[in-house]
């Protein structure tokens, strides 16, 4: 959901209501800039009120695409600060989850960066849950291998966000990926699913999302969504936006769930 407009974050909750959604994801600032965004007067109260009126409306903040928690020097410092800013905003807004790509470089550096961002945001045990997202792979990008992702969060308060397009592009069959998640990370640490079809073929390492049933994953997605182990998870579609696209994707998903 977009936070553009005079209502800001509260406007995203308003749009969710109009679309009949039960969960949303937002960017708390531009995803392709280091510039932070201050919350406007009344924005926090407006969002919290709408969220409550919509039955809680579980919400996810997606961190900036520029963040690289495994980087060195100034880039690492900027990344940690940017992520800490998102976590602090989530805390103020009563948002439950913040999702971030681990980055490219040493796994231990990414793990330290994630934990440092939580510390800078001043989060306690009851603060928003920071989730590391699996990736499509390529180069030194972390998170394409689910075993590596499990090692990143092991022994920490961090969780995992699982993206279907990224897993497919990394070479996984979704049924096999779910088994791997359960055996390595543990599904109790995977509260959020990004439900996306893939423009690229399996194993292509192409991070390009498609509308449901219009990409290369197809029926595999439906079987994944209907797996009973995922019935309590929060599903977020990062599919192309637009009136027709939204209607198509919601119709497909609601049809799978028997809600139409």
Q: What is the alpha-carbon Rg in Å?
A: 17 Å
Strand content: 5-15%
Per DSSP, the total helix count is 9
Oligomer: single chain
Uncertain runs are none
Count of β-strands:
9
CATH fold node name: TIM Barrel
For CATH, the homologous superfamily is named as Divalent-metal-dependent TIM barrel enzymes
Q: How far is it from the N-terminal to the C-terminal residue, by CA?
A: 23 Å
CATH level-two architecture:
Alpha-Beta Barrel
Domain Xylose isomerase-like TIM barrel: 14-246
Family: Belongs to the AP endonuclease 2 family.
Enzyme class: hydrolase
InterPro entries: AP_endonuc_2, AP_endonuc_F2_Zn_BS, Xyl_isomerase-like_sf, Xyl_isomerase-like_TIM-brl
Describe this entry's structure for a reader.
The chain is an alpha/beta fold and 260 residues long. The chain has a single domain, classed as Alpha-Beta Barrel (TIM Barrel), CATH 3.20.20. 40% of the residues lie in helices and 12% in strands. The chain is built from nine helices and nine strands. A seven-stranded parallel β-sheet has the order 1-2-3-4-5-6-9. A two-stranded antiparallel ribbon has the order 7-8. Helix 3 crosses helix 4 (107-120) and helix 5 packs parallel to helix 7 (174-184). The longest helix has 21 residues, at 73-93. The chain is globular and about 45 Å long. The model has no long low-confidence stretch (mean pLDDT 96). It comes from Meiothermus hypogaeus. It is an enzyme of class 3 (hydrolase). GO terms for molecular function: deoxyribonuclease IV (phage-T4-induced) activity.
């Amino acid at each position: 959901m977009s936070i553009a407009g005079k209502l800001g974050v509260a406007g995203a909750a308003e749009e969710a209501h109009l679309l009949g959604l039960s969960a949303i994801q937002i960017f708390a600032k531009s995803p392709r800039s280091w510039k932070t965004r201050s919350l406007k007067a009344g924005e926090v109260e407006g969002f919290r009120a709408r969220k409550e009126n919509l039955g809680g409306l579980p919400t996810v903040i997606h961190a900036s695409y520029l963040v690289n928690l495994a980087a060195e020097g100034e880039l690492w410092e900027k990344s940690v600060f940017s992520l800490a800013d998102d976590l602090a905003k989530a805390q103020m807004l009563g948002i439950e989850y913040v999702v971030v790509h681990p980055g490219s470089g040493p796994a231990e550096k990414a793990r330290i960066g994630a934990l440092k961002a939580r510390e800078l945001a001043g989060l306690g045990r009851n603060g928003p849950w920071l989730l590391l997202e699996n990736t499509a792979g390529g180069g030194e990008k972390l998170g394409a291998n689910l075993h590596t992702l499990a090692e990143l969060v092991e022994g920490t308060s961090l969780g995992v966000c699982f993206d279907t397009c990224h897993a497919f592009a990394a070479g996984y069959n979704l049924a096999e990926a779910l088994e791997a998640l359960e055996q390595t990370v543990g599904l109790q640490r995977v509260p959020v699913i990004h439900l996306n079809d893939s423009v690229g073929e399996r194993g292509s390492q192409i991070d390009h999302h498609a509308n449901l049933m219009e990409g290369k994953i197809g029926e595999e997605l439906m079987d994944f969504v209907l797996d009973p182990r995922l019935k309590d998870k929060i599903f977020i579609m990062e599919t192309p936006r637009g009136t027709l696209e939204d209607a198509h994707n919601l119709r497909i998903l609601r049809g799978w769930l028997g809600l139409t």
